[in-house]
Amino acid sequence: MTADSTALYDIPGPKTRKRHALYGVLSTILIAGLLAWVLYLLFDTDQFTAQKWTPFEYKGIQELLLRGLGNTLKAFAYAAVLSLAFGAVLAVGRLSVHRPVRWVATLLVEFFRAMPVLVMIFFIFVALKVQPLPALVTGLTLYNGSVLAEIFRTGIGNVERGQREAAYALGMRKTQVMTHVLVPQAVRAMLPTIISQLVVTLKDTSLGYLITYEEFLHAGKLIASNLDYDLPFIPVVMVISPIYIGMCMLLSWLANWTARRQKRNPKTEAVDVGPAEPGTLLPGVQ
Fold it and tell me: What is the pLDDT of residues 24-83, one digit of tens each?
């Protein structure tokens, strides 16, 4: 193993780097060709003509899109807060020393994680006759909360064992150990993963259009269904998609920014120790 190698892999040599560079160039050409083909199809079907973009200048359509975007953000806000709370409760249950509580929490986590989100949303909306927004939020909360519960449990379990033992040695109770020692350290490590899961929650709000919730995608569907030219969904998708992608990229950027900040956090970094200097000797030491 060379000096630049790691325990996981060897640093690639000159031939391997050339081969990887070739793969990168070929991949770039392939992606560029795919984008060019898509653009050709869009131009060939006259998707950039004024006729197909003029409707988006109407105030009514703009208000419909803004109202749909607001409903999407409202559903996401409710689902995000409730998912975090529900996940925290399930995580505490899974970490409980009482076996029945732990079994019930484990059963709920495994059930809601295995159940498709759309099935839960439809069941709540159709079988329980719940209004669209509560049905959407409940389905998202049950699924994402169960996933977040595993993230919380794993994060707390990954805190160094000595931290827990030292806290108990100081006479702290379990609740104090959890709230003052384990959770603060685990949250710093879990934040990027939590935010990444919230990106999934944001994207899944688009399932609301299937139960007639007037969110962003539903607004786009209404607009496209009232346009009188061929392929009306394409301009609508070209308007809606960048906004969805932008919101998800914003959350992803927040996750990456949080991860970088944690690396620079003095509470999580090693402290440099200065060189030893001569000092006063203890009594009796020559």
Answer: 999 999 999 999 998 888 888 777 888 788 888 888 889 999 999 999 999 999 999 999
Strands (E) located in 80-234: none
Burial class (CB in 10 A: 0-12, 13-18, 19+), 118: middle
Kindly give, in sequence order, each residue whose CB lies less than 8 Å from that of residue 233, ignoring residues fewer than 6 positions away: 220, 224
More confidently predicted of 211 and 181: 211
Q: Once rounded to an integer, what is the mean pLDDT over residues 155-162?
A: 80
Per-residue burial over 170-191, b if 16 or more Cβ lie within 10 Å, else e, is eebeeeebbeebbbebbebbbb
In whole angstroms, give the CA distance from residue 7 to residue 60. Answer: 61
The C-alpha angle with vertex 167 and arms to 164 and 172, in degrees rounded to 5, equals: 120
Cα separation, 218 vs 224, in Å, equals 10
Type of residue at 65: L
- Take residue 55 and report the two structure tokens written for it: 């409707």
Please, what is the angle between helix 59-94 and helix 233-264, to 10°? 40
pLDDT for residue 133 is more than 90: yes
The sign of the torsion formed by the CA atoms of 68, 74, 78, 83 equals: positive
CB 140 within 8 A of CB 204: yes
> If DSSP codes are grouped into helix, strand and coil, which group holds residue 170?
coil
Tokens representing 12 are 């690639």
Q: What confidence tens digit (pLDDT) does each residue in 87-111 have?
A: 999 998 998 888 999 999 999 999 9
